[in-house]
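Backbone Fold Data
Goal — fold tokens
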Amino acid sequence: MADEKITDAEFRKATDADPAAVFNALADAYVQDGIEIRDELVPHNPVTRKVIDAGRWATRQVQGSQAAAGKWLDGVNNPSRDPIAAGIEAEKKWVDKITQAIQQGRRVKGLQKSSLEQIKATANALGAGVYSSGVAARTAKISARVAELQPLAQSVSDTIQGMSNATDADRERRLLTARKLMIAVGTKRRG
């Protein structure tokens, strides 16, 4: 698609022949020049319905999500299936999708779309109470994890305390052994 005006028939022919190419050309143009580029590349069709502008779209999403908070909680309490079992069942799909994401560099691309200022603004808008209430709500989970971890950490401590501490070489060996044992603790906990 060129940057000059085209007719309805030309546009239809191009979209019928290769809709992906037309999409990519429009998407690239919108990103480069903004939404007004549409008038250059897309012929006028009074029947065509435009997508609502970004500001209205974002506002609707936020307001809709806030209004659906009760539905979200109801869904959590009444799932259509066990989400843990479904997650386990979908393991191969998850691995495939993660592999694709790594190969395509999606994590880096996603991080580049964010900013430290956005993170700070969100945290400040929510306030410190969200963090503390989130931790408090997870007390049972934290207690269960610590109950798993404590005897393993105690085993590491007992092992290190039983090692010689007389020379620098001994102390270095203790430090390296402690590191290796803590890695083993993580491996043991993961199963």
Remarks:
- The chain has a mean pLDDT of 86.
- The radius of gyration is 28 Å.
- Residues 80 and 86 are 11 Å apart (CA to CA).
- Residues 141-190 form one domain.
